[in-house]
Write a structure and sequence with these properties.
With about 230 residues, this protein is mostly helical. The protein is elongated, with a radius of gyration of 25 Å. The longest helix has about 30 residues. It is about 65% helix and about 5% strand. The two termini are about 30 Å apart. A 3-stranded antiparallel sheet has the order 3-5-4. α3 runs antiparallel to α4 and α4 runs antiparallel to α9.
Length: about 230
């Protein structure tokens, strides 16, 4: 069973001890005996890992083996909800970038760091960190010294926030924002958006594969089917 998936025998024992696999029976000499049930459980777990991550996949399998199928389904629903939220975030990024040219550099709508941080749901320290990374270029009020974010700065902050939600590190976002700011176009962002969209599609397919493997495992454990 370990060789089929390129795993060590210790990994199989660890999965059993963690509740990812059902408990194995023992021979009179203490050796574990793994059956087709364990093989299907392992396949289901590994398929779930690809779509939900190791931690959530482990929680799903433990819930199944604890008889808490509803909890396992809830965990799956949460992952799908997160994927939907990520898709909406991608759409928001695309919409924000599509409107880049619509915001003139000297546009109205200036704001201070506190209100902008509250709008984005982040700390002011995060905005200062983005500024140090070259992502934002707020001006300073000559009387108070406070940072003043123009409409274009707010736009850039929104784009950075959305790209960060998409999983992109600051070092990748900084040159992109600078290039878009100077070039006045969104062409440099298009490959990133295509890659992001492809990753979300791959994740969605992986979740489907995980669901199919888990359903097969549940059907094998309870061949009479739901409600019977």
């Amino acid at each position: 069973m370990a060789r089929e998936h390129g795993l060590s025998t210790q990994a199989i024992r660890n999965y059993e001890e963690a509740g990812i696999l059902p408990e194995a029976e023992r021979t009179p000499h203490g050796y574990r005996v793994y059956t087709p049930v364990h093989q299907r459980a392992l396949r289901a777990f590994l398929a779930l890992v690809a779509g939900h991550g190791h931690r959530t996949a482990a929680l799903i399998m433990r819930a199944i083996h604890d008889g808490a199928t509803d909890e396992a389904l809830r965990l799956i629903d949460e992952s799908h909800a997160q994927l939907l939220d990520d898709r909406r975030t991608l759409q928001a990024v695309e919409a924000a970038l599509a409107g880049l040219d619509a915001v003139p550099d000297g546009g109205s709508g200036s704001t201070l760091i506190g209100p902008l941080a509250r709008r984005l749901g982040i700390r002011p320290a995060t905005l200062r960190a983005w500024e140090r990374a070259g992502l934002l270029q707020p001006s300073r009020d000559p009387r108070t010294g406070y940072r003043v974010y123009s409409a274009a700065d707010v736009r850039d902050a929104l784009v950075v926030w959305q790209l960060r939600r998409g999983g992109y590190p600051l070092e990748q976002i900084a040159p992109l924002i600078a290039h878009v700011r100077l070039a006045g176009g969104v062409a440099p962002v298009e490959p990133m958006l295509r890659d992001w969209r492809a990753r979300l599609s791959a994740l969605g397919r992986a979740m489907l594969a995980g669901a199919a493997a888990l359903d097969a495992y549940l059907a094998y454990r309870t061949p009479e089917g739901p409600g019977e």
